[in-house]
């Protein structure tokens, strides 16, 4: 069963009541944008969420998973960025000039790294397929790897049916929450390769210079990616990110009616996340927030503490009320290891999406011996 414990919020110095004053600016996301999400990866808080679990076709935003898959292969030493890739006539015939393209020609030998830049910078459908065939031998094997990566990351509402996001009769779908998980994974696991291959403004190949359609990089201070997408079925989509003053934000927009609106909303939304929201630390790492009941242990309870500092974000100019409580499935079964993730702190802030942060056991609780189990049983009978 799930037990719920009240958090002594007064001890954290959190205001128990409050409202948004007139100066607090709402997120600048028009109602005609059906899906929108912003997450502050610095504290795992969702700053804004509209239909974050609604499935949609991501179009070329698929190429963020293409990039993740390629970067992972590079990091694992399974292929080098300097590896030359010979472009086949079949690939040229099927993909060169088809939609967004690097305009690869049969017989050319770009390196694996150049193809990755072609996929991330100019959204090359041909470059994405070339990456797949060069590294794993076939597009089918590559798609299998993309889906395996998605499962490992925790993208439970995502399926990939192509290497490049080209329309595939609905086989490819995702959600804003899942794309945020993907963005977090690539930023966390491969920061150096992310900076090298994502966020470049232009790409020159065979005398042709093309520009990146990313609407925020180079415009919003701190912005550095990630990927736009468009098909007539999916509308205009964007997975973006940026870092400013130690805060890393990830944003998703999907189903935007026009390219111009995507550009305007993306810039305003990301800037709002940086300058329209402030953060404050309420408690340090290691702070004990409550207790959880333990069954069959040499102690009846274990303290629950923060694994990381508790930092919350609120709209600038707001004294919005903050409420929190502890959730755990219990009683916990002994033995309980010190540092084990055993509970969640559920946080509600007026006008913002609810979210949770992990709580860990502050100490080890051993399994009770026979005498302790007898005493526990007698205490239980006594109420």
The CATH superfamily of the largest domain bears the name DD-peptidase/beta-lactamase superfamily
N-to-C SSE string, H for helix and E for strand: EEEHHHHHHHEEEEEHEEEEEEEEH
CATH class of the largest domain reads Alpha Beta
Could you report the average pLDDT, rounded to the nearest whole number?
89
Task: Explain what the structure shows.
With 383 residues, this protein is α+β, with helices and mostly antiparallel strands. It folds into two domains: 2-20 and 281-381, Sandwich (Peptidoglycan synthesis regulatory factor (PBP3), Domain 2), CATH 2.60.410.10; 35-275, DD-peptidase/beta-lactamase superfamily (Beta-lactamase, 3-Layer(aba) Sandwich). Helix content is 28%, strand content 28%. The chain contains nine helices and 16 strands. The protein has helices at 63-75, 89-95, 112-121, 125-136, 139-153, 176-189, 191-197, 259-275, 370-381; strands spanning 2-6, 35-40, 45-50, 202-205, 208-211, 223-231, 235-244, 247-256, 277-283, 288-295, 301-306, 310-315, 322-329, 332-333, 341-349, 355-361. The protein has a seven-stranded mixed beta sheet with strand order 1-13-15-16-11-10-14, with no helix packed on it. Helix 1 runs parallel beside helix 4 (125-136), helix 2 runs antiparallel to helix 4 (125-136) and helix 4 crosses helix 5 (139-153). The radius of gyration is 24 Å and the shape is globular. Residues 1-23 have low confidence and may be disordered.
């Amino acid at each position: 069963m799930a037990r719920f414990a009240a958090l002594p919020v007064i001890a954290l110095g959190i205001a128990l009541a409050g409202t948004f004053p007139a100066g607090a600016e709402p997120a600048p996301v028009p109602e005609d944008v059906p899906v929108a999400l912003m997450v502050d990866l610095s504290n795992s808080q969702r700053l804004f969420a509209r239909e974050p679990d609604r499935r949609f076709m991501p179009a070329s935003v698929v190429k963020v998973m293409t990039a993740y898959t390629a970067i992972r292969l590079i990091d694992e030493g399974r292929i080098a960025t300097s590896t030359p890739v010979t472009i086949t006539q079949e690939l040229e015939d099927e993909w060169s000039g088809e939609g967004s393209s690097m305009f690869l020609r049969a017989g050319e030998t770009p390196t694996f790294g150049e193809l990755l830049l072609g996929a991330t910078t100019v959204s090359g459908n041909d470059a994405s397929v070339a990456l797949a065939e060069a590294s794993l031998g076939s597009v089918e094997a590559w798609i299998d790897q993309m889906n395996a990566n998605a499962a490992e990351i925790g993208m439970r509402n995502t399926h990939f049916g192509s290497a490049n996001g080209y329309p595939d009769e609905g086989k490819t779908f995702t959600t804003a929450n899942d794309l945020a998980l993907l963005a977090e994974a690539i930023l966390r696991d491969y920061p150096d390769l992310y900076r090298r291959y994502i966020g470049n403004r232009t790409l020159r190949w065979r005398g042709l210079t093309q520009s990146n359609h990313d609407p925020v990089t180079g415009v919003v201070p701190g912005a550095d990616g990630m990927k736009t997408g468009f098909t007539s079925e999916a509308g205009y989509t964007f997975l973006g990110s940026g870092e400013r003053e130690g805060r890393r934000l990830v944003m998703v927009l999907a189903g935007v009616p026009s390219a111009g609106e995507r550009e305007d909303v993306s810039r305003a939304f990301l800037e709002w996340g940086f300058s329209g929201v402030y953060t404050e630390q309420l408690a340090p790492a290691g702070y004990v927030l409550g207790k959880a009941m333990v069954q069959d242990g040499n102690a009846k309870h274990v303290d629950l503490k923060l694994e990381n500092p508790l930092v919350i974000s609120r709209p600038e100019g707001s004294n919005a009320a903050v409420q929190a409580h502890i959730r755990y499935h219990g009683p916990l079964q002994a033995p309980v290891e010190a540092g084990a993730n055993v509970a969640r702190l559920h946080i509600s802030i007026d006008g913002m999406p609810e979210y949770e942060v992990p709580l860990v056991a502050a100490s080890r609780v051993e399994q009770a011996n026979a005498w302790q189990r007898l005493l526990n049983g007698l205490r239980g009978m006594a109420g």
